[in-house]
Amino acid sequence: MNIEAKAGSSFTHTFRFSQADVEAFAQVTGDTNPLHLDAEFAATTPFKRPIIHGMLGASVFTKVLGTQYPGYGSVYLKQTLEFMRPMFVDTDYEGVFTIVSINPDKHTAEISTEILDSQTRKVTTRGVATLMNKEKF
Amino acid sequence: MNIEAKAGSSFTHTFRFSQADVEAFAQVTGDTNPLHLDAEFAATTPFKRPIIHGMLGASVFTKVLGTQYPGYGSVYLKQTLEFMRPMFVDTDYEGVFTIVSINPDKHTAEISTEILDSQTRKVTTRGVATLMNKEKF
User: Fold this and answer.
1) ipTM higher than threshold 0.90
2) CA of B59 vs chain A CAs: smallest distance (Å)
3) Distance from C-alpha of B115 to C-alpha of A116, rounded to nearest angstrom
């Protein structure tokens, strides 16, 4: 078990997406909702400008959990997601991961997952991940 | 309100992903977990071969909800996800969307979201989406 893998320990990862990332995500997933791609359409919405797909923002959870914290060997079991505020391109965000509980018998953990705007500190997305990792938990 | 937008109505969308899709998803999200990309590593896991990122499979939810059912104008509020069974490339899956409840005052709906293997009919991923759509709900 990793020294950091105990309830209450946390990990932060800073990230940002570009409009090219949004377009690549739209292409691979097929989610071509104009809210994400069409500035003219987005201007007619309460958001005023294109927002990132909520699932693209939330993909920082699978990225960090799968590759960094706890990392390789992780198997994703569950994720809850609340899309609380819009996210925009070319903006710094922080993914904050906090271990809520570990079940050593099952090699699973519940990890609180949040995205904050690096400047305003407001939470844009939050949820809880459940992971299995036989080496880390 | 769309004629289909009532509790109990449902919509099915068939889809599949290729290994190129998995690689594109890994690139845009940064989730380079070898479980999805490296056949040699995956052979050492209980899955025996590379599995699709759970979030890539679940992206069919944002795709269909954002572009088809209920479609444009949808704003994603919440999504729960349970990754119950692995998903593989070059395999047909069905996304099944069933309206659980509509709140016309808030223009929101809860929609059950499931992915089934088209052949075995086993559920690979399930959850509930909460959406706002001012024109459809």
Assistant:
1) yes
2) 6
3) 30
